[in-house]
Amino acid sequence: MAMLAWNVRGLGNKDTVRALKNLCLKYKYDIVFLSETKQKKRYLEKIRMKMKLENAFYVEPNGIAGGLALWWSQEVKLSVTHHDKNFIDTAMSISGEPEWFGTFIYAPPYEDEKQCFWEKLGALRNDVNARWCVMGDTNIVASPTEKYGGSPFDHNNAKWYHEFLERTFLMEIQSKGGAYTWSNQRSEEEEICEKLDRVLTSLEWGFLFPKTIVVIDAAIASDHAPVVMLLNGLQKKFKKDFKFESSWLIEEECSQIVKEEWTSTGGGHQKGTFRVNLRRTKVKLGKWSKEKFGKNRLTANNILKEIKDLQEAPLNKEDALKLKELKSELTKNTELQGRVA
């Protein structure tokens, strides 16, 4: 099972939607939580259906600010227990496993709202032995090692967060990937990098999912990086099923292959049955797609790896320019693969 928490900083442009779609293709999430959507339910529902997640709950934005979206698959039994503009609290179970609580957060960035938020969040669970997972944007730099650039680390700013941890006995799952999850995307002396997004769990929750891995993915279309949680750890990759890509329809070669394979006798005296023709066409299209688009897919993966490598450390001016070029190249590359949302 895979879960995603991502502060998208607005879901109204095609690049962000495309990045989200690619993430969903990569990990096949059962739960997706998006914060700062800045979009109404009607618009978000169109995107959800493209991601093939059957269920949804929304907190509407205040004008063009804020907004939360929680999507989940039919494999998850989930009910929303509490919510406000900064969090969605749920009770859920997966495939017959014991019930646990999942709270998806977008903590307020303003100092005068932090105390109220963390106290309110802590009051959700009275039982310190509850199976509880908190995931999302904490808007807190918890230690000096989680910050680069800008003003010095502020201990008072993290006070309410640390008191919340002490009261609830939650612990952070150490993540793999970049050291920071947010950047102001500037270079050299103007750059600021911080770790704001994270996953917190209780000891009992950890006993239920001992193989859990948290991954910080590449920040492509937002200044926040997506946080990916894999409850069963890294799984062996299996051969993908054949999938007809809509982008093939604009290729003349595709139409020709379908026509030839569907009408071919295959060396016999009669045309094949429906199943034979279908299988033969799938094989030929698969081979054609690999030859024609395989290079593009490999290139996209290489670009993504370069982006993630650059984002693991503060950028100098040259790296910042390189990162911008790589993101532009990745966008063009994914368009060639027919993944435009």
TrEMBL record:
<dbReference type="InterPro" id="IPR005135">
    <property type="entry name" value="Endo/exonuclease/phosphatase"/>
</dbReference>
<protein>
    <recommendedName>
        <fullName>Endonuclease/exonuclease/phosphatase domain-containing protein</fullName>
    </recommendedName>
</protein>
<feature type="domain" description="Endonuclease/exonuclease/phosphatase">
    <location>
        <begin position="5"/>
        <end position="224"/>
    </location>
</feature>
<dbReference type="Pfam" id="PF03372">
    <property type="entry name" value="Exo_endo_phos"/>
</dbReference>
<dbReference type="InterPro" id="IPR036691">
    <property type="entry name" value="Endo/exonu/phosph_ase_sf"/>
</dbReference>
